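Page header: ASSEMBLY MODEL / two components / 958 residues total.
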Amino acid sequence: MKYIVAFLLFTFAYCDDYLFTTKYIDIPLDHFSFTNNKTFKLRYLVNDSYYVVNHPIFFYTGNEGDISMFAQNTGFMFDLAEKFNSLIIFAEHRFYGETLPFGNESYSSPENLGYLSAQQALADFVYLIDDLQKQHLNSTELEKLPVIAFGGSYGGMLSAWLRMKYPYSVIGAIASSAPIWQFKGLTNCENFNKINTDVLKSLGSENCVNTIKKSWAILRSKTNSTDGKNNVSQQFNLCKDLQNSDDVETLLNWLSEIYTNVVMVNYPYPTDFLNPLPANPAREFCNRVDSINYKDDTGLIQALAAGVGLYTNYTGKVKCNDILQTATSSLGETGWNFQSCTDMIMPMCSTDDDMFENSKWNFQEFSDDCFKQFKVRPLNEEVPILEFGGKDIGTASNIVFSNGLLDPWSSGGVLRNISDTAVAVIIPDAAHHFDLRSENPSDPETVKFARKFHETHIKRWLHKFYLNGNHIYKFKQYE
Amino acid sequence: MKYIVAFLLFTFAYCDDYLFTTKYIDIPLDHFSFTNNKTFKLRYLVNDSYYVVNHPIFFYTGNEGDISMFAQNTGFMFDLAEKFNSLIIFAEHRFYGETLPFGNESYSSPENLGYLSAQQALADFVYLIDDLQKQHLNSTELEKLPVIAFGGSYGGMLSAWLRMKYPYSVIGAIASSAPIWQFKGLTNCENFNKINTDVLKSLGSENCVNTIKKSWAILRSKTNSTDGKNNVSQQFNLCKDLQNSDDVETLLNWLSEIYTNVVMVNYPYPTDFLNPLPANPAREFCNRVDSINYKDDTGLIQALAAGVGLYTNYTGKVKCNDILQTATSSLGETGWNFQSCTDMIMPMCSTDDDMFENSKWNFQEFSDDCFKQFKVRPLNEEVPILEFGGKDIGTASNIVFSNGLLDPWSSGGVLRNISDTAVAVIIPDAAHHFDLRSENPSDPETVKFARKFHETHIKRWLHKFYLNGNHIYKFKQYE
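Prediction written out in full:
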């Protein structure tokens, strides 16, 4: 927790918050066509408290949400920046957080929202990195500053792809929990939910998982009547009673996502990433579910609601639950749904082998839902593979793919080495991009090892970078 | 000339023409954003006369013109296809030839024409290659067919970039005379014209070059008056007399381009690429210029006009010269001018050391001209470097960059090895993408060597491809 001490020197600093200067850069709206010359302001956060001139830039490739949320949950970059005298940048992804190219109208039509895409975001980052290098380079020997990309989850996918598509922009990438293979034909659609279930069973209990599996039919049956809808609404403390079958679907999706999230963020100490949570929330969730020795269907729902309450209201300050939202509003769920409908099409399904309600992957239905919601359809399921290569990425270099085996997203992660320098590290007891968090006394040894692994590779990339340029004055520190 | 025999078997075959089936594929207009779901028909040419199932695809990445023009001037692919049992594809570049996404309206506004870009074209090729692989693969052992990209000039740039950006789409690229370094800061703006001049001096004569250098001031002075404009118009046999100073600029540009083209296509046997020309047209051009022992300015223009006549009317069938066009109308000059204004910004200038009228590179003026012509401006001069990396492309693999030293475009070419497998071959006595032409008795030894070099590398890529997949049944032939 060294950085806290450093930050206390800042005015307005308060405990466990990372401080940044907020900056903006004008970026072309469309990097790939020239039908218009619009630009927009992309927000990025800068921390130069460790920066020594001509040292590396650590660049976080922002994902689907307010960038400050990721900036507050990626302490690893700070721990490392101190060692490497690096500049820390967190770049916001277009159409999320405050980076809204069309302001309040950004989500109003496909004509605007259509500029939300992974490819455009990558080009944004290239553009910003170029600008940062020009701002911060001060050397007659170096042509540019070395930049390391960091990212978790979708941000990790972007980090890896940034290195693959624009290897001149970043000398390497740390791609944590980056499911770049969660696409058609690369992983089975049921894998995600199966892992989720297995993890909850092993961290929580078999009873907990069975309760969930049984609940779907019970909830559907109960909510058939108006009285039933009202009862279930009360049991889950919903802000607005369920009115119709669409609301019931929303409730079931909301519950599914909560069961997923509680596993994804199962860190061994209290955190506030998607929601404020205690240490080991998956276990705590099941403890609450299991604490109720239910006898009937109403009791079963009560048991579930107890678990859900841990996730939705650990602080005790939440008055009621909004089923349209499963996490902090900093997460751009609508934007992500749009991306899922265009270039980030990730087939998902459930079977008898997992705790979720059985469901098949039906591309046509999915496409119809997309059209209903956004007036766009995915062209086909293979778009992400045509764009990024699927498993045929043997030319990739200088990437570390890390995946925790307690993370359902490991289903689409890269769990083996791709080439000599694009390598994988598996973290048996880690949840979603745990390794990107700051050092903590509760860290498992395997997470510490993964962070060392990252550090070793970053040193190697930097060593080669400074050596290639004959900049011997500095590379020694990366040996 | 083996292929000619093969082609005589076709109905409608006639001498020295390569035959193709014309096909079309529906392609998304915008691969990178999702503001609309428009598609267009991309034309491509197929020759399967040598193809044996599960053998490689040779894929020409079309450049700025009608694809059949390139298909008729890239015989090397046919010579090689016979050896490798390959399928031959020539893919047309969007907005050229018949591939007009908005039909007659394609060039009418930036809203339409803006979709003309190198990045979109690359994605088109990826899309088509994926479709071709699905059409032609017939194996339980192979996951896909190996594809080799070929291209000359801008087409060669696209081949190289296709391999760099989408290495899963093509296993290697033959990038002939591809000036991927003809961008800001990568080569001096005067290099192109300097090489052009040196080559014409060495193949033609010092007198020829001096005559050209002297002509600019004379032409400007002569065309100051109406009588002078008429005289010059007659001397150059223009279809329409020069009317104003804009016309004079057009004439001077037209002349410059002719002096360039005659060097670019200086092949040692008669060809019909940009225009019908005799063998060694650069020498012939200067022979004509030098044949007139001029005494005054009118005589000097007469000497130049004699040279120009070789280029514009070698067949003797042209009635008059249109200064709005310097080559076959199959070349999409307007489209290329648009690309020069957006992502293919190539700074050019002339000095006392070359035969052209002195001119400085002035980005602002260039940008203003772009806006006047197309209602677009280049964002900045660095766009192509941000997109494709400039000289920082050390991660590139499986590319052969070939450059003839008689080719002015070698100014922006890759003349040294980039990595272990992205290598350069220099052809001392070759003009623009000479190596992509078919075998000919007049071929210099160095051109034959370059073709062998290509073949060796293609064999190596294929060997590795079939070996990696354990497809031992076939790789032996590539050892």
